[in-house]
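Quick one:
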Amino acid sequence: MVICVGEILADMTGRTCHGHMEFACFAGGAPFNVACCLKKLGTVSGFCGSVGQDAIGNFLADVAQKQQFDYVYLQREKERNTTLAFVEVDGAGERTFSFYRKNTADAYLPQAEIGRIVRLADIVHIGSLPLSSEHGRAFADELIARAHACGKKVSFDVNYRSDIFSGEKEAVGLYRKYIEAADIVKFSEEELPMFAEGASQEERLCKIAGTQKTVLLTLGSRGSMLCAAGNIHRAPAAAVQRIEDTNGAGDAFMAGALSSMDGAQTDPNAVLRLGNACGALAVSQKGAYPEWSKEDAAALVKELGV
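Output:
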């Protein structure tokens, strides 16, 4: 079982129309997106997060309930509003973020749920946004320590957002601790040089992976890479007729990879192929949580395996 823990928020995707801005509200938050995609893939999965007692919180609670997770705990904060992410998407589908999250709910995760999460999960996947607050880091520290004490694996997606930090140096200093603690780590191509020096991506991946970690790297239209036990593996991207929105593509990739690893898949190339297939399905529609099925992913995996 994979349990995703961290931010659940509303992605407010905007466009200019007749001199004013219009926003469409989508359920989002990287670990929530991962959990939803895991459920699409038929993986035993769950989610733990926090929202406010407000209209957006009600919307997100309804979306979470409809996923039929095998485990779900959504804390409702009386004193804090639900976190919002305002997303602008350019003509190529690329995104820029502006977060509304001053003292909002996403980082105030329920300490009392840690024991239950650790008992149920084989892999605990941790989101990065709550780590920008002291409360979120305290929760993550205890969760990681207890998961490892019980022999469970910890997964971490860097998912760096410059809008929530004073600068790159602060983010790197905070995230490095969680990269070192995790058993499975994912970077985007832009994030990798922030955390490791080297003459090539392969060298950087090997430095971070060492002898114990599995490190994943997404490369957009060029596919993805995986490093484990000093060995580098690559897989091409799945073909996409039209990119509608890259929001959630990395989360879908992560879900595919985690689904494979939770299912005891030992072939790194198969892990990458499912991740790439899920990422391709995510970019083909608007929003971080588009409609696709396990069968859609399997069909793309078959194409990539040819």
